[in-house]
Amino acid sequence: MNHKFTGTGVALVTPFLKDKQIDYPALAGIIDHIITGKTEYIVLLGTTGESVTVSREERENLIRFVRESVHDRLPLVLGIGGNNTMEVIRQLESTDLTGYTAILSVCPYYNKPQQDGIYAHYAALAQSSPLPLILYNVPGRTGSNMTAATTLRLAYEYGNIIAIKEASGNLAQIMEILKEKPEDFLLISGDDNLTLPMIALGASGVISVTAQVKPRPFSDMVRFCLAGDMEKARKLHFELLGLMSLLFADGSPAGVKAALHILGLCENELRLPLVPVNEAVYKNLLRILHPQLH
C-alpha cells in the first residue's frame, strides 16, 4: 500500500467555466496532462480543488468523473476532512469510494482543538474509515498545528493511519517525526519548495501543486532525490524554484489556475471568496511558462 504514495502526488484543481460551473472536459485534459507527466498519484478535493465551495452533488459527480477519467492509470486519494468530526465520519461512511486508495483528511480548523482533541478526532476517523488515512497538517490554513508527538501517537496506535502530509514548514518538527516514526509510516511533503530537503531527511515524496503545471520535471526532481542523485535533483529544483514561488505569491489555488490557463488547460476562474491572481503575478507566470512571448 504505502509504496503507492512514494514519489509525486498531484493536488488536483477543480476547473470552472466563466459561469462558475465545473468544466469537466478541462478536468479530463488536466488529468491526462498529469498522467502523461509521469507522476505517481492524484489527490482529489483537497485545498487546491477548492473543496469547501463544492456542493455535495458536485462532490459526488467529481468523485465519479475522476475515477472514470483516470481509469486505474494512477492511484487516487480523496480529500474528506473538516472540523465537525461526526460529519466527516458520515461522509466516510456514505461516500462511494470505489476506485480510491486512501483518504487525505485535514487537521480540524477554526475550532482550534487541543492536541488531545486532534488525536481524538483522527482516532474516531481511523475507527470509521473504510480506507487508509493520510493525515494533513497545514497550520497556515487551519490555525492549529498538530505536533510531532500527536502525529507519532496516531502513527503507532492506528495501523490504517499510513502517512502524514506535513505542510507546517517546521523542519525541526518534521525531523522529529522522521526520526521517531514507525518504519512503514510515510511523511509526505506539503510544501513544494521544501520537498528536496525533506526527502533528503527521509520524506517519501510530495503532494504537489507545481507538479500539476510541470509534471515531468517536478516528478523527475523527486525521483532523482529519492534515488540519491542530488546533483540532478538540485538542478531541477532550482530550475523550478521561480515557478514554485509564483504559484503561491498571490494565493493558492489562484496561482495554479492562472498557470493552467496560460498553458491552455482551463479557464482562469475560481469561486468566491477566491479571486484570480493580480496582473503582476499573471505576467510573471506568462514570462516563465511562455518565455518566447517576451
Can you walk me through this structure?
- This protein is an alpha/beta fold and 294 residues long.
- The chain has one domain: TIM Barrel (Alpha-Beta Barrel), CATH 3.20.20.
- The protein is 47% helix and 13% strand.
- It has helices at 24-36, 56-70, 85-94, 115-128, 139-142, 148-157, 171-180, 195-201, 210-213, 215-226, 230-247, 254-262, 279-289; strands at 7-11, 41-44, 76-79, 102-106, 133-137, 161-166, 186-189, 205-208.
- Strands 1-2-3-4-5-6-7-8 form an 8-stranded parallel beta barrel, surrounded by 6 helices.
- It is globular, with a radius of gyration of 18 Å.
Short summary:
With 294 residues, the chain is of the alpha/beta class. It has helices spanning 24-36, 56-70, 85-94, 115-128, 139-142, 148-157, 171-180, 195-201, 210-213, 215-226, 230-247, 254-262, 279-289, and strands at 7-11, 41-44, 76-79, 102-106, 133-137, 161-166, 186-189, 205-208. The chain has an eight-stranded parallel barrel, surrounded by six helices.
